[in-house]
Amino acid sequence: MADFVYLTLELNSLACMQAHIEAELLPVTNHLKALGYGVTLVVDFGKDPLKEILQTITHEYIDLVAMSTKAHDGLKRFFFGDLVGEVRNPSV
């Protein structure tokens, strides 16, 4: 029972986070659409971010990816990786 409750809370939390992120990005999305750009907003919480991003780029024929990032260097980059660099130059 505890696993089910935890999973439900986690899913609700992710859904709330996703809704919040989408709401925060809505003004920018609407502005770009008003300028004539085709904009698709994708917010996902997959287990393998690189794989999810590359699959979305391929399946949706995306020309430009805008990612928010916090730069890591040294040991942080070693442990956390460089997702933006991997998306830019995938070795997959």
Task: Describe the protein.
- The chain is mainly α and 92 residues long.
- The chain has two domains: 1-39; 46-92, no CATH class.
- 62% of the residues lie in helices and 0% in strands.
- It is built from four helices and no strands.
- The chain has helices at 2-34, 49-60, 75-80, 83-88.
- The chain is globular.
- The model has no long low-confidence stretch (mean pLDDT 77).
Strand and helix map with partners:
Elements: H1 2-34, H2 49-60, H3 75-80, H4 83-88
Strand content: under 5%
Number of helical regions:
4
What general form does the structure show?
A: globular
Largest sheet: none
Helix content: 55-70%
Q: What is the number of strand segments?
A: 0
The helix/strand class is mainly alpha
Number of domains: 2
- Show unreliable segments: none
How large is the radius of gyration?
16 Å
The rounded distance between the terminal residues' Cα atoms is 40 Å
Mean pLDDT: 77
Order of helices and strands: HHHH
Key words describing this protein structure:
single chain; 92 residues; mainly alpha; 2 domains
What is this structure, in a nutshell?
This protein is an all-alpha fold. Helices cover 62% and strands 0% of the residues.
